[in-house]
Design goal:
alpha/beta; Rossmann fold; 2 domains; 6-stranded parallel beta sheet; 14 strands
Length: about 325
């Protein structure tokens, strides 16, 4: 006998989707498990509406839940009507519900007031009444959901198989600064890079870019993961100057390759990185602080304690946390 978990999340709008990556990583974690079976996340048919653009077609979720005879529905997402649909159909089918919001504080969203109204009037009652367990990622969203739910479990993201034993052997570039993300996305804070002295650093930007690069910046678009790992290993510093990140996969990936990271004070993987040498935090939008700490980090001779990183974000340890949740709710 096994426990079957159905992963549901709003259909992704882009390939670089954090929720999608999380869902696929969680399934991969249990791929060889004999007891917990996590079904593949799918893009179920949706309807486009004038007010809410994301709404599942009638009958889609009923078929997904009932025909596959699942025991637990794992709902992911925060600001979409489709998330409410997930709750409604999972409860109608009398299934246990694990909810992971991938929550961002309202003030950091594009439409804060609209998001707040949607959450408090529509989504919060479903979470409070129907979620059996709420899984959170950082201290801030844990505190938020604990205000109205009594079963909140904080679990960070983890180091997956591709990063658990890095085999890249390249020499560090003493002036290389790496940025990974959508360069023109205001949330990613790439404008901080423009305040660095031009020509002082060898700046590499990985991700979609619609222009705006300086002569000392090199763009990498649609590169394979192996090439990204080469850049992680070669860089002297990874910068994550985001307006807000609930976690930061790229920071974890860089640390796994022994590369120091500089984070804005709004990047919440920092909750798990206390007393890790090579992790520096600057004040978001304080461009002088950013430049000073880039200089200091690049010039420092820092050896990342990769063993400590592996222990804090061990896939084996974190898998047991999820196993405990699924087992407690299963048949």
């Amino acid at each position: 006998m096994s426990i079957k978990v159905l992963e549901l999340r709003p259909n992704p709008k882009s390939k670089s989707n954090g929720i999608d990556k999380y869902c696929n990583a969680l399934r991969a974690m249990f791929a060889d498990d004999d007891f917990i079976k996590i079904l593949p996340v799918k893009n179920y048919p949706m309807i486009k509406g004038k007010i809410q653009k994301e709404r599942y077609e009638k009958g889609v979720l009923d078929r997904a839940i009932n025909e596959q005879d699942v025991d637990i529905v794992h709902i992911n997402g925060f600001g979409s009507l489709s998330v409410i649909q997930m709750f409604w159909h999972a409860k109608k089918a009398k299934k246990k519900i694990v909810y992971t919001a991938h929550w961002h504080p309202f003030k950091y969203l594009n439409h804060p007031f609209r998001a707040k109204v949607f959450f408090y009037l529509l989504l919060k009652p479903f979470i409070k009444r129907y979620a059996d367990v709420v899984v959170t990622i950082n201290n801030e969203d844990t505190a938020f959901f604990k205000k109205f739910h009594n079963n909140v479990k904080q679990i960070p993201h983890w180091i997956d198989g591709e990063l658990s034993s890095p085999k890249v052997d390249v020499e560090k570039d003493s002036s290389m600064v790496l940025f990974v993300g959508r360069f023109n996305d205001p949330n990613k804070g790439a404008e901080h890079l423009s305040y660095l002295p031009e020509g002082k650093y060898n700046i590499h930007c990985v991700g979609p870019c619609n222009g705006g690069l300086r002569s000392d910046m090199t763009s990498h678009v649609n590169i394979p993961f192996e090439e990204l790992c080469q850049l992680y290993a070669k860089a002297s510093l990874l910068v994550v100057p985001s307006r807000y990140e609930a976690f930061s996969y790229v920071a974890l990936e860089a640390l796994s390759y022994g590369t120091p990271v500089l984070l804005s004070d709004r990047v919440k993987i920092a909750d798990y990185l206390e007393r890790i040498e090579g992790v520096t935090v600057f004040k978001y939008h304080d461009y002088q602080d950013f430049c000073d700490k880039v200089k200091k980090s690049v010039e420092a001779s820092i050896i990342i304690d990769k063993e400590k990183i592996m222990k804090r974000f061990s896939g084996k340890v974190i898998k047991e946390k999820y196993r405990t949740i699924f087992t407690s709710l299963g048949k």
